Amino acid sequence: MAKPVPTITTIAEAAGVSIASVSRVFNGQPVRDSTRRRVLAEAERLGYVPNAVARSLKSNRTDQVAFAVEDIGNPVYLAMLREIQPVLRADGFRLVVHSTGGDPGEEIEVLRGLGRRHADGLVISPIRVTPDLLGALAQAAAPVVVIGSVPPGTPVDNVRADSRTGVRLALRHLLDIGRRRIGFVNGPLDTVPGERRDAAFRDGMAEAGRPVDEGLVHVGGFRRETGAEGARRLLAHPHGPPDALLCANDLIALGALDTLRAAGLRVPDDVAVVGMDDTELAAVSWPTLTSVCLGSAERGRRAAGLLLDRLRGAPPAAPAAGSARTVTVAPRLVVRASTTGGDQ
Amino acid sequence: MAKPVPTITTIAEAAGVSIASVSRVFNGQPVRDSTRRRVLAEAERLGYVPNAVARSLKSNRTDQVAFAVEDIGNPVYLAMLREIQPVLRADGFRLVVHSTGGDPGEEIEVLRGLGRRHADGLVISPIRVTPDLLGALAQAAAPVVVIGSVPPGTPVDNVRADSRTGVRLALRHLLDIGRRRIGFVNGPLDTVPGERRDAAFRDGMAEAGRPVDEGLVHVGGFRRETGAEGARRLLAHPHGPPDALLCANDLIALGALDTLRAAGLRVPDDVAVVGMDDTELAAVSWPTLTSVCLGSAERGRRAAGLLLDRLRGAPPAAPAAGSARTVTVAPRLVVRASTTGGDQ
DNA sequence: TTGTAAGCGTTATCAT
DNA sequence: ATGATAACGCTTACAA
After folding, report:
1. In this predicted structure, what is the pLDDT of residue B284?
2. For site-directed labelling of B90, which of A169, A293, B99, B205 has its Cα 20 to 30 A away?
3. What are the boundaries of each domain within chain A?
4. Domain HTH lacI-type, which positions (chains A, B) (predicted)?
5. A290 sits within 7 Å of strand C by its CB
């Protein structure tokens, strides 16, 4: 009843040859033409398909790469995924995705998975970099590329954004258009991006010779509600609302827009708004959102490239001491209506 | 130099026991306590991790499930993915994603992958259902769940949306708010959703006793540009612009909003707009977009559930003749500002 | 060109 | 409770 799955042996017997010959046929190795034909005919007839698991056991390769991020639904990670997938696919790798919820424990589990031979390599974008995670990274059983920042000396290839420059671009733009009371709505300070953007904001303000008014700084999550809430709080500032809002990502900015609209304030006339990440949401919102592109797509592409280098290279695929590569992707300010009005 | 990867044999020797005992320890089978301790100690010391590939070869399971869609970046598929992933994960399955570009050839390749034992099961959402694809579905070497519609009798579990009812809900809503000249901007008619929505539009209009004016029907891609372009064309209708636009998905609707805005028409006062799929974009756009929720998230969840049933069941996991299950997810109209103005 | 046979790292069936 | 040993399906010397 249950159709037995044909193996190389089944075919060998049916075609009256050895299993070695069958294997050769399927690996494009030299075989007599008549043999090849017979084997292929039987394979076709019996519906034979080579078993990739058995092949993996011999070759010690899975032809899979894992991609681990906090939440694959986040547009930033999605942008990376969209770039990574085709690049790896072109080299014959399938993609296994992990949504870790940002839990270092789960991320470490994924790293362990490399030892179990779940995948030949990993692209990971940890949102919280703990010592345990760094340890696991250093011990990874297969090539790993981190999208994000790791402490200097960490023996892992990594592709990072330049939040500092990005924030500076945004601040300069806001100052250029005459804004002076700039509010800042950020995500959690115990995350890498949150901490980075906070520092960058403060440095940037200092550079511009502007003091930071803590009453104009709000910290929450990287979520829309945080933007709405943060904007509400900053609008209630005793000296009146700020004339610009720098938001640590686009979702926060959208939330801020909601609040501003509800408060009857005009964007950008009364308050200019800048987001970060330049996700597809920025182009859709109304007014369209000026945003700092931190190059998610490019970071994804570069990460895939770095990983492929290691994967293609000879076995010593882990970065030899000091050979870890760091790529930094330059940010770019995408100016839209939320700061300049003008175009729709 | 190259740290040799320890195997069960390495540990057995180090601990002075047989490989069988090591295996038992790692599978929670009865072993003397002292033995267990010794094995675990050596495993820890040598950094032993069980090889999942070897395990798969024996067990004939990969603990992986594949998810194949046209473009994983499409919010609709993404919504499915977000639901599917945790459900499968809870049962210990990893997720392999495939973006097929809607090419039936690639989809068939993924189906073949099941025979190669790349995955234990598959959730697939084909956008074009060709005879070849149906053939491959019927022959799949492992359980498959289709998200979408398949011809009656196809021996595959499937979870479908109800476009017909969805379109009807939208039409009724537009008629309810007094619209009479309803335009329709659709995606390609050679895709399942495109064809379905076209038929539903015509039926719905007929039901409502309204003739279909072909000058108010536009067909393009499921893209924003199609919406912009379609709206432009319909606005130029000799009898003047329509007073409502039904768009076959949210992207199209956003494109239409662009055009309407550029033309100085008010939404919804001059033209009401309805999208479909109720993606996150609908809530972000301005005005926020009334949209027909076709239950992407729920379809994903249900599909994962159906697949798990088969995966957990005894080997005869393919639907026995006639036992294929079909689940239909009810649509729901989500009313927002693009038809009623009012709220924000 | 082809076949034999030895693994790849597990699990599982026997004995013991 | 433990140990040999035979699979699992394939690739790959080594022989013939």
Report:
1. 86
2. B99
3. 8-50, 62-161+297-313, 163-293+333-340
4. 6-59
5. no
Can you give the pLDDT at residue B27? 93
Q: Which two tokens stand for residue A233?
A: 């709080």
Residue nearest to nucleotide C5 (CA to C1'): A20
Give the nucleotide with minimal C1' distance to the Cα of A24. Answer: D11
Beta bridge partners of B285: A285
- Mean of pLDDT values over A194-216: 95
Domain spanning A8-50, CATH architecture: Orthogonal Bundle (1.10)
For residue range B114-125, what is the model confidence (pLDDT) as tens digits? 999 999 999 999
Answer whether B56 sits within 8 Å of A53, measured CB to CB. yes
Q: Hey, what are B177's tokens?
A: 């708010």
Cβ(B255)–Cβ(B51) under 8 Å? Answer: no
The pLDDT of residue B1 is above 70: no
Beta-carbon separation of B2 and A315 below 8 A: yes
Domains B62-161+297-313 and B163-293+333-340 share a fold: yes
Residue B176 sits at the vertex; the CA angle it makes with B170 and B179, to the nearest 5 degrees, is 85
Of A295, A151, A275, give the one whose Cα is nearest residue A223.
Answer: A275
Residue B286 has pLDDT above 80, yes or no: yes
Q: How many CB atoms within 10 Å of residue B294?
A: 24
| More confident position, A318 or B332 | B332
Please name the residues in contact with B43: beta carbons below 8 A apart, sequence gap of 6 or more. B6, B11, B22, B25, B26
CB within 8 Å: B52 and A98: no
Instruction: Give the per-residue SS3 of B184-235.
Output: EEECCCCCHHHHHHHHHHHHHHHHCCCCCCHHHEEECCCCHHHHHHHHHHHH
Q: Is the pLDDT of residue A1 over 50?
A: no
Which residue among A51, A71, A286 places its CB closest to the CB of B286?
A: A286
Q: Please name the helix (run of DSSP H) or strand (run of DSSP E) that holds residue B292, with its range, or none.
A: strand B290-293
Rounded, the Å distance between the CA of A58 and C1' of C6 is 12
| pLDDT > 90 fraction of chain B, expressed in percent and rounded | 90
- Kindly determine whether residue A72 and residue B81, on different chains, have CB atoms separated by under 8 Å: yes
**Rounded CA separation B269/B177 (Å):** 11
Asked whether residue A233, judged by its CB, lies under 7 Å from any atom of the DNA or RNA strand C, the reply is no
Q: Which positions in chain B touch A86 (Cβ < 8 Å)?
A: 99
Length of chain A: 344
* Nearest Cβ partner for A118 among B52, B82, B285: B52
Q: Which nucleotides of D are covered by protein (CB under 7 A)?
A: 1-5, 7-13
B81-128 pLDDT, tens digit per residue, is: 999 999 999 999 999 999 999 899 999 999 999 999 999 999 999 988
- B249 CA, D14 C1': separation in Å? 63
CA–CA distance, A65 with B96 (Å, rounded to integer): 9
**Which residue does chain B place closest to A47, by CA atoms?**
B115
